[in-house]
Design a protein that fits this description.
Layout (H helix, E strand, L loop, with lengths): L1 E7 L6 H13 L4 E6 L13 H11 L6 E3 L2 H5 L5 H12 L3 E7 L12 H7 L1 E6 L8 E4 L6 H6 L8 H15 L2
Parallel strand pairs: 1-2, 1-4, 2-3, 4-5, 5-6
Helix pairs in contact: 4-5
């Protein structure tokens, strides 16, 4: 079995995440794609939407995709989980022959600082979602989209939220954040 892991904060989930999933499923020969929302990114000190809310939104967004499994592993941990721990968990549970780890090109500059990077790089093949034409030695998949969760947290652009979860995100935004 070949799998890919796409982790992140998904805070909030947006059309870029949706397009990345389609790109992965269409570009890599994989049996399953695991989407793993983080409880809290190791590089952040707080979250915008609660971990359970983000998990629920991602589950709803990809519920019809047969090759996608949304994992609650990191959310259920209740704390920041290093990627190496998630990779080992999925290895133990699914016994894959090959694991691709999907990362954004914005992580390339800090990748070597990730927890147990040397061990991680022996367990996975990194696949870079390359939005900014960054030169890399890793395999990369180009994707031109100008949307980011951090910009959406500053100002919700409802058109950047996938149709399937748009109403729910808008309601959360109005009720919780009065924006």
């Amino acid at each position: 079995m070949k799998i890919a892991i796409f982790g992140g904060s998904f805070d909030p989930p947006h059309i870029g995440h949706e397009q990345i999933v389609k790109l992965i499923l269409n570009s890599l020969e994989i049996d399953l794609l695991f989407i793993v929302p983080a409880f809290l990114s190791p590089f952040k000190s707080q979250y915008f939407l609660s971990p359970q809310t983000r998990l629920n939104l991602i589950e709803k967004l990809f519920e019809d995709e047969k090759r996608v499994i949304v994992s609650d592993y990191e959310v259920n941990a209740g704390e920041s989980v290093p990627t190496i721990k998630t990779v080992k968990y999925l290895y133990d549970k699914y016994k894959p022959q090959k694991v691709y780890l999907i990362i954004g090109d914005d992580h390339l500059s800090t990748l070597s600082k990730w927890n147990s990077f040397d061990e991680l790089s022996k367990l996975v093949e990194f696949i870079v979602i390359n939005r900014h034409d960054i030169q890399t030695d890793y395999k990369s998949l180009p994707l031109k989209i100008e949307v980011s969760s951090s910009k959406l947290r500053e100002h919700l652009d409802i058109d950047s939220i996938p149709q399937k979860i748009k109403n729910e995100v808008n309601e959360i935004w109005k009720k919780e954040y009065n924006k």
